[in-house]
Structure prediction request, 429 residues.
Amino acid sequence: MTQKTQILNLNRFDPDSAHAAPELLRARMRHAGASSVLFYAEPVEMVRGEGVWLTSAEGRRYLDVYNNVPSVGHCHPKVAEAIAKQSATLTTHTRYLNRVVETYAERLLATFPAPLSNLVMTCSGTEANDLAMRIAEAGTGGRGFIVTEAAYHGNSAAVNEISPSAWKSRGPAAHVRLVPAPKAPGFDAAVAAAAQSLDAAGVGVAALIVDSIFSSDGIFADPAGFLAPAVAAVRAAGGLFIADEVQPGFGRTGTGLWGFARHGVVPDIVTMGKPMGNGYPMAGMVTRPDLLAQFCEETGYFNTFGGNPVAAAAGLAVLDVIRDEGLVENAREVGAYFRAGLAELAARAPVMGEVRGAGLFIGLDFIDPERGTPDAAQAGRTINALKQKGILIGAAGLYGYTLKIRPPLPFSRDNVDFFLQVLAEVMAG
Prediction:
């Protein structure tokens, strides 16, 4: 039987293996204790980032093919300048008027379809999803949520309940229903059945919430439009649709700024985070005015730091860079080139399976060629072998056998060629 993998165990450093750990690693283990999560069999100390590259304390450069936070490139000078300038001018809480904040809100909201015209800024994607859940409950009267089997949406108490990939020894709460990742037709039927189950239990349906490229499930992008029937199913049951754009948002899928747009749907609520400030901690939630007003009638909500002037300056700079450097188009064109190269390599490597994705968000499966079953061990060996050759990458999926290919958006064809060359060397042994 294929073993399911908890998300924090994907490519995780095993502290029990650190018999002669360097001082910095010992300090991390001592300070963070059981909460410490580090990548790779041998963790790396990073000291500098630039574009699509990271540099370690030993002076080695690594091609970053994983990091979604600095989406417009590590330490982008325009973002860094905007943060520094605003930080030196004004940084305060959110109960004063500030032109930078409102300029950012206007720019960001202009990228969403009507009637999504209200923005609430937060500090993390977890906060954004927590707020989205509360608004969905207030707007529907339901308390139930439908999520995919390996979903991850954050780590507050409420959001962790809808993040099965973070669970270690427990199952879903009474108000949560799991549906399989959309690997085949029938996703809408699974959502409808989950909604019926919640109604039968007297819980009611608040929302279907999905990462619109299903990144934690193993990256499922095609066919474009497959989400629409599932959204219709949850709405028919009285629920809302929450699009979690924390990972696929801000141009990554190569078709506009938002992943949900590929499916021809307009969500009731959209959440976003990680790449929003290119490393500066900021996130947000966009929704309809009627839903936000209904929530605010019941709850006095504010966020001390969400949407502070420095965050807004960072966010504006990110939007400028995406536009000025053509990063959505780059994601589309380089992503297509990347997927084609991976498919060609997979045709020659029996352990490589399906290639999936959109833009610069790609999943590559590893399989046991004799059994045709997921091979998480091979994925793990490949990840660490690539790291030894100067490439950083991670894993995803219910069984941890999918390479999660998600580089900064300025990734070039030359970067792709280097990655494919090194991966071919690793596959050749």
Q: What stands out?
A: The longest helix spans residues 327-346. The domain at 77-324 is CATH 3.40.640.10 (Aspartate Aminotransferase; domain 2).
